[in-house]
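User: what does the whole thing look like in 3D?
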Amino acid sequence: MNQGALAVEGLSKRFGAAAVLDNLDLAIGAGSFFALLGASGSGKTTLLRLIAGFEAPDEGRITLDGADLSGVPPYERPINLVFQSYALFPHMTVADNVAFGLRRDGLSGTELDRRVAEMLALLRLDGLGERKSRQISGGQAQRVALARALAKRPKLLLLDEPLAALDRGLREHMRIELKRLHDALGTTFVLVTHDQEEALALADRVALLDRGRLAQLGTPEDLYERPASLAVARFIGQINLMEGRVAATGETLTIEVPGLGAVQARSAPLSVGAAVVVGLRPEKIDLGPGDNAREATVTDVTYLGDQSVYRLALADGVELRTARPNRDGPVARPGERVTVSWPASASQVFPAGAG
Amino acid sequence: MRRLLVGLPALWLLVFFGLPFALILKVSLSQAVVGQPPFTPLFADGAFQGSLGNFALLLEDDLYVEAILASLGLAASSTVACVLIGYPMAWAIAGAPRRWRAPMLALVALPFVTSFLIRVYAWIGLLRPTGFLSELLQSLGLIDSPLALVPGSFAVAIGMIYTYLPFMVLPIYASLEKIDPMLSAAAADLGARPARIFWSVTLPLSLPGVLAGSLFVFVPAVGEFVVPELLGGPGTPMIGKVIWQEFFNNRDWPLASALAVMLLVLLAAPIALAQRSQAPTARGLG
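Assistant: Here's the predicted 3D structure for the full assembly of 641 residues, as structure tokens:
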């Protein structure tokens, strides 16, 4: 009974000579909270406009629950969009904004009033219905935009950078609000964002786009813990990178890193002698003895309140950064000699030169 | 600095509007005499000599009332025609690719580089029985006898629209261009077809421009008498023409001044109304 499954098949879009989307395939499950993540120029905004129907693809097609959307104008698609700028109609009241789409469906009278009141209540906007849309705060405008888009009960809701314009406190609040709405309605939510934190925190599936192609599709944990490529590893979160060469294969990979000697890393389908890049997330490096233990000097400590980031100089100019929680304040001072270590399973290995 | 910014326009208004208007108001309260100046002083023998007699005369004589009504009628119909023609023009310019907009706006303003009188005479040349239009239609065999459009009300309509159209197009364009294109996209996304987007979103948001353009056309059009004089027949004289005649032909400065004051009061009403309806918008945008 779940509706709102979107499929993108062989989608290409060019502007002039530049391919903005390049033969993209993507499946978005019905009822999921899906994030399209990418830097500017990744094609995510173009994909959003194609799904909403504001642009037509050069090749390929988009289907919703199996129905081809090619040639279907935006006003006939069972998809609604929450604009980044909210795009509320400034000459209308909050209630008229919410009613706009319902009126287009032919609703009027008490049925219309009931549906508008229902949406205002759902978004906790009771009492604001008669305000002009330019007389409300940014956070309220965001909720009105959501109420307006959800009022038509779309099969799929597109959210364009929904939290970008909000300040930090409101953003946190709105995240919870979006999750609550998604759980309550069961509508497919597709979030388009350049903010990885937003994507990881909200979505159950994330598609990372890079220059018009799909770089990786998976759960937030997949993208962070098991990046498919060096490019994905670099885009998501912080990472230490060390160049080396595969010295031995087996249960773990043995990698010869200049200056560090042999380092044990998570197994990967690579052969002996291959040039590789070892990636290590800062929070996975311990200050203390353990596997892959090395001596290091603390060169810098950045205090961030909940945690501190330590910059470490190892032999031969190798630099690592590690982040440790401040349970009892910073655990090392600049100039201090420390032992660093990390389990083999914490490191990710990528073939060198592959992006 | 702030005082200077407010003070300069205020000074300008005082020197070029306030003082002349005070003079006209003073003259309108006096009586015409043969002499230099051709009106009685307001104070003589230590007593106020002014009266509202001129204004009473204006209301009694049908000539003046008719002239005012004819002028208001012509101005109103010209304004409506300019909205109907100017809105689509402004819409087309606002919707054109960015690089085309400046040249198109320049074309709208292009007639201003030639003298207004020469342009009106050019219309006589085009529309008279032996003119371009008549001869063209005859040579095409569409009409048998010469077409006498000048003098006539059709020629007056063409002349008025031609003269005032740019004053309508420019403010409407300005307000259309200011509308966030995302609003149209949002309306489409919510199920509105193009016609509905226009009626529910674009038109209401461009009304300030329509209102401003209507004022720019209506106010000067009420005082217009060159176009009806040159292109129109010998019908009812326009109020501008009557003021001219009273000043220069009859040398009745007080009566002419009274007419001018009355016209100003009549025109101030729609301006004040427009300002009141604009005020909330301006506050909202500020």
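In plain terms: Chain A touches chain B through 27 residues (CB under 8 Å). The radius of gyration of chain A is 25 Å.
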